[in-house]
Design a protein that fits this description.
Elements lengths: L12 H11 L4 H8 L3 H8 L7 H11 L26 E4 L2 E5 L9 E8 L9 E2 L4 E8 L1 E6 L2 E6 L3 E5 L4 E4 L6 E8 L11 E2 L4
Antiparallel strand pairs: 1-2, 2-3, 3-10, 4-11, 5-8, 5-10, 6-7, 6-9
Length: 203
């Protein structure tokens, strides 16, 4: 059994994508045009034939104008205090990784914390991400390499990184071990859906 799946409650990403798309009366072909992804790739995700990368989820969320956390499930009422037990986290598997929400999807304030668990070789995808607000990264164990614009930053256990998130960025696990990373997105703009916009990677 994978180290990522021992306690994870698996969310059917394909089924959730279909729900979000159909709720907005968006056809597969229209979503493909809006997201810049192929209709075939979207169909494969919806049918559970492939797992999307994180940057692909961001692009789909941006095209549907929803926060990427909507893939965790229907939006819940926002609260000023969010208390979560470890087994109550929303969990979303992606390609070679697991994303765990830490309450930001329920919080009224401008903070979105989450945990990433990354198998060796896991990455955010081939597309660079950019969004409003600030991004704080704390490596709990293993390694994660962030590319921000043209600069590389290698984080190991105990290392941290803080940057303005409108800078184009991407990440991957370059090591041979599972990596755990705490990420907090904060101070994003009113009405903005943080983490829902990505740019095509430069050649």
């Amino acid at each position: 059994m994978s180290a990522l799946s021992r306690q994870a409650v698996s969310i059917d990403v394909g089924n959730r994508l279909r729900q979000l798309r159909e709720a907005r009366n968006v056809s597969m072909r229209t979503l493909a045009t809006m997201s810049g992804l192929s209709a075939n790739a979207l169909s494969m995700i919806e049918r559970g034939k492939t797992s999307p990368s994180v940057s692909t989820l961001y692009r789909i969320a941006g095209a549907l104008t929803v926060p990427v956390t909507d893939f965790f499930g229907p939006e819940e009422a926002r609260k000023k205090v969010v208390y979560l037990k470890a087994d109550e986290r929303t969990r979303l598997p992606f390609m070679r990784g697991l994303w765990e929400g830490l309450g930001g999807e329920q919080f009224t304030g401008k903070a979105m914390p989450f945990m990433l668990t990354l198998e060796n070789g896991a990455s955010s995808g081939s597309n660079q991400m950019a969004h409003s607000g600030n991004e704080f990264v704390y490596c709990l164990r293993g390694q994660i390499e962030y590319q921000i614009e043209n600069q590389l930053y290698l984080l190991e256990g105990g290392d941290s990184l803080l940057f303005a998130a409108q800078l184009k960025h991407r990440w991957h696990n370059p090591g041979g071990l599972v990596t755990n990373v705490l990420v907090i997105i904060s101070d994003f703009s009113d009405g903005d859906q943080p983490m829902s916009h990505v740019e095509k990677a430069e050649a």
